[in-house]
Amino acid sequence: MMVRPTSFFPWYGSVDNVFMLCGEDASLTPDYQRWMVKNSPVKEVMEINGADHMPMLSMPRELCQCIVAITNSYIR
């Protein structure tokens, strides 16, 4: 059997990860999202209170503010 010697996504983990926790997500509860953060290589967690599973539709302005803050923090 042939086996790929490296990961299918070799770049995964090569950049800092920021997790957006959505406070009103009915698909992934906040507790489950926190479990995902605990079990992932996440550098920072930002929470958007009131956002559902798709913050780009439910709270686009707040999501944009978070993205701008992340950009200002990590791009030098």
UniProtKB/TrEMBL annotation:
The organism of origin for this protein: Platanthera zijinensis
Keywords: Hydrolase
Signal sequence segment: none
GO BP: any one term: salicylic acid metabolic process
SUPFAM superfamilies in the record: alpha/beta-Hydrolases (SSF53474)
Keyword Ligase listed: no
Name the UniProt record assigns to this protein: Methylesterase 9
UniProt-recorded Gene Ontology molecular function terms: methyl indole-3-acetate esterase activity; methyl jasmonate esterase activity; methyl salicylate esterase activity
Domain of life where this protein originates: Eukaryota
